[in-house]
Request: fold
Amino acid sequence: YPRVAHVQYLVALSRLITGERESGLAALHDCLTMSPGATTCAILLGELQAYAGDCVSAERTARRIIEVDPE
Reply:
């Protein structure tokens, strides 16, 4: 479902820009649930996790990205 994943990415981005962090994170998780290979969603999620100091989750997300797209 690449189109649906892209829509969820845009929803997440708009929510994050307007300060709705939790809602934005939920949209990123929804994106990855619908399309596990959506690296755009995973990259943004991993960056947010790292910025928040959640190193365990950021590492898990990074490993997921590498698994899906090793290049």
